[in-house]
Design goal:
The protein is mainly alpha-helical. The chain has 2 domains: 76 residues, Arc Repressor Mutant, subunit A; 154 residues, Four Helix Bundle (Hemerythrin (Met), subunit A) (Up-down Bundle). It contains 9 helices and 4 strands; from the N terminus they run ββαααββαααααα. β1 and β2 form a beta hairpin. The protein is globular, with a radius of gyration of 18 Å. It starts with 16 loop residues before the first strand and ends with a helix. The relative contact order is 0.16.
């Protein structure tokens, strides 16, 4: 679904401020939370070795969902700023290092063209990562994937295809694919996926690409079906089927985007 739709408008009022930071609408909520936490770490508010506030405390402070907080923590972890200890929380390790890999926004490409390039990169990355995930996943990672699927299914069963539902499903999609990357047991897959997801969600013009030319309901039904197949293969430990299902999902999204570009060329 981040593959077909990037919809995540900030829901925090511009009037609210946290540490004198106004939540910028062009950033995703998770990116803004990560930025604020990074600034606090750099300023010494959270010294090396100290524990970040709990998920519940950060949910209350930032007025965002648990998924947003987990995404922000995952990005801090991927950048080397924190480490997580099961049952204890996230602890500060060292200052953030400059990213070794960066995608520069190409000004002469349309949003759809730019996203096609990202989709092709994701296909190369995630077709292999999902196969590893099918062999290495654990019960906790499967539970995270189920939790994301449940968000999609609730919206579908309720017939809720509103913008707000699209935002929730965009967050759930990121959470699903992150859980797949985490299930590889290879931190490099997780770091690169976190970077790509953050890149896409931070581009407000990309978030305007919706439904691949179809209706919201068609998009939702297709997306739910594709993710259910991916999950079933991972749960069954079937690497080949997981590869095939993931490829059909991402390649289908890429092909629909290419169709959007052709009339413009």
């Amino acid at each position: 679904m981040a593959s077909d739709i990037i919809a995540c408008e900030d829901t925090v009022s511009e009037e609210n401020s946290i540490d004198n930071h106004s939540l910028r609408r062009r950033e995703s909520l998770s990116g803004e939370v990560k930025r604020i936490l990074s600034d606090r770490i750099a300023a010494g508010r959270y010294p090396i070795g100290s524990r970040l506030p709990s998920e519940s405390e950060m949910i209350a402070e930032f007025n965002v969902s648990r998924t947003v907080i987990r995404e922000a923590i995952a990005n801090l972890k991927a950048s080397g700023m924190v480490k997580t200890v099961q049952g204890s929380g996230a602890f500060i390790t060292r200052p953030e290092r400059p990213a070794a890999f960066e995608i520069e926004e190409t000004v002469n490409l349309s949003a759809a063209q730019e996203l096609v390039g990202i989709m092709e990169l994701r296909i190369g990355l995630e077709v292999e990562s999902v196969a590893l995930a099918a062999r290495r996943r654990n019960a906790e990672q499967l539970a995270l994937m189920r939790e994301a699927l449940h968000v999609f299914e609730v919206c579908l069963e309720a017939g809720d295809f509103s913008v707000a539902a699209g935002e929730r499903c965009a967050e759930a999609d990121i959470a699903f694919h992150r859980a797949v990357s985490e299930a590889t047991g290879n931190l490099h897959f997780l770091r690169l996926y976190n970077y790509l997801s953050e890149y896409m969600l931070s581009r407000s013009h990309m978030r305007a690409i919706k439904f691949g030319g179809g209706s919201a309901e068609e998009y939702m039904r297709r997306t739910v079906g594709e993710h259910v197949k991916i999950f079933a293969a991972i749960e069954a430990g079937d690497s080949d089927s997981a590869r095939a299902a993931l490829y059909l999902h991402l390649a289908g999204s890429r092909d629909r985007l290419i169709k959007l570009i052709k009339p413009q060329s």
